[in-house]
Amino acid sequence: MLRLSTLLLLVVTVCTSCGDLFDFGFSGRNADRVGYRETGEVQAWVPVYAEPDDVSGVALKDKRPTQEGGKIFALGNKLFQVETGVGLHIIDYSDKTKPVKVGFLNVPGCQEVALKGSAVYTNSFENMLVLDLSAFPDVKVKATLPNVFPELKYPRPPGRGGYYVCPDVSKGRVIRWKQETVLNPQCAN
Amino acid sequence: MRELMKTRILLICGLVAVLFAGCSKQDGSNNNYASENSGSGKGGSMARFAISGNYLYVVNSNSLLVYDISDPAMAVPKSTVAVGWEIETIFPYDDKLFIGSTTGLFIFELKDPEHPNRLGAVQHFRACDPVVTQGNTAYLTLRGNGTCGSPNNSLMVYDVTNPTQPILKNQLNLKGPYGLGVHSNALYVCDGADGLVVYDVTIPLYPKTVKTIKDGSTFLDVIPYNDVLIVYVKGGVRFFDISTPQNPVLLSEMLN
């Protein structure tokens, strides 16, 4: 009886992990997962998942601290800086000795930015977005151009030849990667 | 119970955000966002977006995409050009685009801005490589350590007088360079934690080191914009006065 239930548990476990694999939706990338191995404690890339609030969509929020600052773009006395995977800091540097943050644009999966007039060009994961700030602080998404950056749909760990922790889709979308010491990471690139 | 708490906290956060938004609306200073931004903007050297005239040029990992942005709020797709593999950066200069990949540099001309035409290319060892241009000289950094392949790290100087045949004129050693920018007679190269290197480029093909600003920051990219050098460092941005281009003076920083 005990054996039967163990067997059942095993089958269920295997099935769930299969489900995880299929949920990735990118079969080629699953080749990264190569069975169980014991590498011990090694430096590895660890996925950082979007907070539920971060994926709620494009919106103007109150300014926030810079954590993982990314690319920058200047126009007039405004500077936009990417907060990797999360959105854009809007900085007013009219007084160059005292720049101030005037807000934060929540853009899930954001990595890129450019500005023209009151338009903001950015990306939300694989899609390019055109935002209109002409009625700032109201923000309008004027266009979503699908799949302009196919490689950003599932951001990959940087570089090659390293270990990483296999992403778990049930935890949300990966927005960036950080390096940590990990026990037995099960993926490698 | 925990879920309920979460919902409550979220609700409160939302309320606070709405209140703040209301405040800035009344303040009025930000309402003329559009009118003050009529000029053209500038990105860093590691950008995947480049704006030239009424066109937005975008590079993904293998293609160059062209959009008409005569009406900035509309990005009308015009064409897609296959470029290569592992494309990382695009830099617009005059009527040309300089595109960097992990294996080389590609130069496109924009006589027909909707259909960029490939003029020339150079191959280099595998590395990360942002590129900027001034006059007939292209400056390119190669970072080989870490995630980008070979162990070489350097500043490469190309004569692009004939863009169909860029000629490597000079190669200077660096520690682990990221972005770079050029302004007047100065070239600024971000060498990560090893500082911001300032070169004299009075003779464009032969940069001479003037100084290295090394103060604990990890320098990643720069935008020389008017008389200000906007520097993207790990953790935020810093502003330098460059009215004397070869002598950047720290004005302020925004870290957190």
From TrEMBL, chain B:
Keyword Transferase: no
Protein name: LVIVD repeat-containing protein
Keywords, in A-Z order: Signal
Residues making up the signal peptide according to the UniProt record: 1-21
